[in-house]
Amino acid sequence: MLHRRALPSMLILAALLAAPAFAQEMRGFTTEIALDVKSPRIVAMSEDGRRIAVTVRTRRGRADVDHARFGDPTYVSPSLVTALVIDTRSGDRVWLHEQFAQVSAFTWSPDGSRLAYLLFAGEAFRLRIFDAESGTTDQVALRTGKPIASSSPLVWSPDGESILLTLRSDGWQQRASTAFHELTQAPVIVQDSRNDFLAWDRVRNIANEQVTALITISDGAVREVLTDGVPQGVGFSLDGSRITYTTATRTKTSYTRRDGTDYGLYSLDVDGGEPLMLIEPTEERVSVDWNEARDAYAFSEEGAVLVRRLSEDEARDVTEGHRDIPGDTAEVDFSVERWSPDDEQLLLTSSKGWHLLNADSDDLRTVLTLEEDEDARPRRSVVQWSEDGRYIYFTYSARDQWQRGLKRLDVGSGDVETLMLDSGLYRGWRISSDGSTVVYTRSDGDRPDDVWATRNLEAPTRLTDLNPQLDDVALTHTELVEYLDVDGNTLYGILYYPIDYDPSRKYPLVAEIYERFFDNGFHENMNLITAQGWFGFRPSVQFEEGYPGEAWLKAVPSAINKLIERGIVDEDQLGVYGQSYGGYAANLLITQTDRFAAAANVSGKVNIISFLGDSPKITTRNYAAAEVGQDRIGATLWEQPQKYIEHSAVMFADRIETPLLMLSGEGDWNVPATNQREMYYALRRLEKEVVWVHYTAGGHGAGRASSVADFHDHWQRMFDWFAEHFDEAGPATVSDQGGTR
Question: pTM value?
Fold first, then answer.
């Protein structure tokens, strides 16, 4: 076995060995190439870690969505993938679907020999079972006329003989279709505030009409166990006689996100009877952590941790006596992380550290003390507690540099051991119950992810090589940039270098803005931008509630100044764009500065007042977003009307000197094109330079959320726009098939 301390260097070596050899003639990254870049996702791993199920997505597989049917409970939006099973020991693979298919809900049987999943084909979901020993896949013919629900979970019974899933009730399809039709095509549509729900909420609620059933794998027999409510977080007791679950029942349309839904916790005997209520439905969210036996659960309440065993009448505060801070009137607030494998201890977290609490004696000890500065504290997230109880495996990511990986905590000694740590970007961690097998996806920071595995802490093995077509394609190189905003906050941005970068030159720069950025990894947008010979940049901003519009002005120019001072960016050739909230940000930013040669707003609102009710299919979300959500206004329109005016770019269109390109989609359920139209008319009236491009088949994301042809067109227009205003000689070619425009 390799010494554990050698693992980081071994990871780097493995990545270098896997990297393509330098080619004399490298191709540029194009929209045609972008459509077929493959991205893996580990969707299931057997408990022993021997087998994993992996799906592989491409942008092409997400094209041609019918955005007009957003909100239709009967519509299954296409999200096509390929799927395979990989043996983590041998690297052998079996294709479940080598061609694009709509598959979901993957889960391994308790013994790891069979993989269940759903396949959408012929306008219906099918239950499929892959047998790992024979390598064959069979379809279970359900002995019922009720179809499988599109959002159905799949949960194996402990004996592996049955699977729990949810079905649609008789006549559901017709009721759902009729309800959608009545709000979209009926000659008369009526909205009435005396109803507890908005009309579109009533349509959305139809998706929650599901019947929970147990399916016998051998013969497809169906036993309905629950006809009311949609169970969430379902788990079986060890003997399979009982399931436990939570519910979230909507009671009315909510504008605050704090009411309108009742949350409850239940236990149900699968052989019959009424559900046993464990926590009475309340508007307080229910988030409990069950032990392995499913006979006890823990939850946090106002900083205290309570435990209830099903044999007891009520929950007990197990942190009583542990919350006092010597010399301080404040109390320690605990959160539940998870139970130990033997169900005897709880891992709790607080702002001070990680703690182990004995569930019977209530004894508590700290096993990991966290850094005092919470803002500089590395990010840690628990992945697995080894079945022998000795180790807790957790991910680790520094906040000031690209240093990411996996560590483990010895709960007995408190020692922390680094297993993997380097500048790579790790995702999708899966660890076998005994800790012997670790599986994950990894990018070197620039190339797309591949699937990797390590056994017994030996040198990792790459299990996939999904994008060999990129070996002769010039991809961007990334750099983490640190800077200060106007208020002195330390922020970070990701700089993407132009291909064939020459340090003796200055280059144009196009910034993509949104909120905060830190991790790199393969990025489609930035590879397309840098392929034009420009820097791409994704700077972060810091918000203050009530004054969100200041964030971009305070941070984005400061971040770009840092690059100009380095002598690598041409200050006269700066562009900025964003999508959705980022498009809103870009449009608002150019009302405050004329720093940019050109700007683009992709599916971003321009008038936060009309936006409140502009998108009926998402009902009250825009109100909540403005008042208590992403927009961070912190008040209603009637409480602070001036803030809504201040944060509506169209109100200050007369100040815009930057040429603006706007792109929208007819089927955009989030930011309807009618909102962007306001800015086009305003700038046209003010005799400003503006171009509005509207994709009739597009959705949220304009041409990027449309057909393949629109995807090419979207990006070509973006490139032409910035190139024109950078005073460059002619547009770049972006499509291998389409040629130059």
Answer: 0.92
